[in-house]
Design brief:
The protein has one helix and four strands. It is α+β, with helices and mostly antiparallel strands.
């Protein structure tokens, strides 16, 4: 069975067979929906400040 994953940056669901998995030196695994999310994460941008990321209303 395929495991469903969510993007650690945008919170969106990742389709099976797509996305980027990044493993840090300390063993932490980060899943990104696409390279756009990955690049924004490593640039230090906050997801809540970007208009293309849907807000779930928890802020």
């Amino acid at each position: 069975m395929v495991e469903k994953r969510t993007c650690d940056y945008s919170g969106e669901e990742i389709e099976p067979g797509t996305g980027v998995m990044y493993v840090k030196n300390d063993g932490t695994v980060l899943h990104f929906k696409d390279s756009k999310c990955e690049k924004n994460y490593f640039m230090g941008r906050e997801p809540r400040d970007l208009e293309w990321i849907e807000d779930d209303g928890d802020n």
